[in-house]
From TrEMBL, chain B:
Signal peptide: none annotated. The keyword Ion transport does not apply. This is Peptide ABC transporter ATP-binding protein. Gene3D superfamilies: P-loop containing nucleotide triphosphate hydrolases. It is found in: Cell inner membrane. It comes from Halotalea alkalilenta. Residues 9-245 form the ABC transporter domain. One of its GO terms (molecular function) is ATP binding. GO terms for cellular component: plasma membrane. Belongs to the ABC transporter superfamily.
Amino acid sequence: MFGLDFTWLLDPTYQGWLVEGVWITLQLAAVSSLAALVIGLFGALGLTLRLWWLDALIELFVEVFRNTPPLLQMLFFYFTLTQLGFTIEDPVTGLQQPLFNAFFSASVSLSLFGGALCVEAFRSGLDAVPKATLEAARSLGYGRWALFRRVQAPIATRICLPGLTNVLTNLFKTTSQASVITVPELMYAAGQVYNDTFRTLEAMLLVLVIYVALVSLLSWALLRLERLFAYPGYGQGV
Amino acid sequence: MTSRSEALIELDGVRKSFGDTEVLKGISLNVGKGEAVCVIGPSGSGKSTILRTINGLLPVDEGFIRVGEHRVHELRSDREMRPLRRQVAMVFQQYNLFPHRTVLENVAMAPVQVLGHDPEEVRERAVRLLAKVHLDGKESRYPGELSGGQQQRVAIARALAMQPEVILFDEVTAALDPETVKGVLETIRELVVEGMTCVLVTHEMRFAREVSHRVCFTDHGRIVESAPPAELFDAPQDPRTREFLAQVL
Amino acid sequence: MVINPSYEQRKRLLLVGILLTVIALVLVDAARGGSAEWSRVIARLPLLLTGSAQGWPITGGFLLNVVMGIASMAIATAVGTLLGLSLLARRRLVRQPAFVVMNFLRNAPWLVVLFAMLYLLPYRLTLLGVTFEFSPLAKAIIGLSLPTAANFAEVIRGAVQSVHAGQWESARSLGYSTAQIYRRVILPQAFRRMIPGWMNLYALLMIATSLATVTGVQEVVTLLRTTLSMESETTLVYFYLAVLAMFFAYCYPIALLARRLENKTKGDSL
């Protein structure tokens, strides 16, 4: 009905662009997910210290990044970081390359955004450990750190997995916005393709399907992980 | 050392408030070694709170608490309370087992991780204790796979594994199905017969009567009456005790 | 009088303190004639907020984001309710396609859906003799409402399923029909639990309206970028901070309120 034409897909040039785009998307998602998890872990650990000023600072970080558009965050980091003008020497060509390029800026920005979401996911996991279970551990003589390490953290990890799945799939989807600051990921590759072929709708539909497939795969894998870590008989509809 | 009497557990003038509500209005209670004391009374009378002050889960506002040589009211942090907790174990209404560990690990983890006992020795002890509470064969199950009564017996084994001098039982049968209550009560009875010092908060009047050496009736944050079970149940002195017993028996 | 603030009070005090310090610093700076950068931002503020340099009429800017957000939310609420109830339908023929649609839209990035809608929707569509014109703005609103609707469907499903199964049994044993049970028993209870999710979704949607810049709509990010092309590079950071602050000032209170409600409704389960 729309007269869709996908014959350009047979062209190896366009195939190459799209494959390259997927590859960059995966790299960007992997780097920022890992960094986000690390930030989230340290943030949540910081919260367990119960220092009111640290608590306030972490909350400030979380709320600022959660309540502003990641697109603007990315533009902000891109322009401010690249403006700093640090360069490094490319080991292959010997040319001076900007240290903070688009990919780097996008990674930093997405890591902080995802990190804020991760802190929140970990924190709600820790909060969800039943107080009675902690009381039982205290009455067995566990001190604060042992209690955290042996009882609270393992249970919280299990509880926060669904929330974490949401955060990571959300972060993966957000990587598409890096195209706006010219990171040559999948969305950007689609732009290249339709600028060349003028097949805008087809390119967009194809990319939409690829994204949905990748995100579905990711959330399926994380769901498997959840099942793997489930404690028999626990948490399945109390 | 610092004991004012021969009792193993001694509470004197213990007061505790939550916000504006005073839950304990001066509780005094002595429990001798090997004695089983039941605390009965209407809900909200502060029974569970008394237990939680004995092992320091709840700090008190006023009063004196001693368990063995530990002056509980002077201990401040979980670290300071560790030696106390080694002596006083507790079993909860909702079992509160660790859902992320198997039955055997639930019993064995605290002795290894908190007391630093030899893992092999603790393992043997845990297997023995599970057999004692009639749960042999369930060692590698997870708590979520057991019935309430089975979980509660694991919780008792977990308490015993700490080799405590006292066990506090906090309405341990209140959340159980009637048919599993019997097994749990049987387990507790065996402990009492073996001479374990027990403080039990319970709604099971018949059990209280059979198993305990002494029964305390609490109402509105005070111990109204304290006597051997035959005396308290058959010839209660205080009108409040009489009224309560008339309702529940 | 001895003031001994609690942990939470101290924390909040510090946060409010930081916020007030930032505002005070900007204001003091502005009152003193201001650094050149801030005075540029202030000069452009009416444009960024309303799309007109004089601040009237409203043709775009941040207020257009607000309008887009509200319009998309209205569509998403209607579509999401239908989709959500389809997810709960007992007929597989209704339920399964609804699942496919919901999962597809939930797993698709907002930006890509927005782009796809931009090209998928025709400029003009005649349906039953009525002609619809799809301006870029209309396309943006539809594009934003689709993922929101899918998420709202999930919120509805979660809320309805969180109503205790005993409610179903007791209502059925009283002779209510399925439709009646939904209307009289389940939905009134589920409704309370949907509200926080709905508000969170609105805050999320508001944040996503920034993506509409790719459709060329004169919303705040588009205006920001055209403004920046006319301003000197040194002002760039200040402009970005100003627009980030707009979104934060709008979305944070909503998120905060949603969390309060969530904590309040958490207790009344079962």
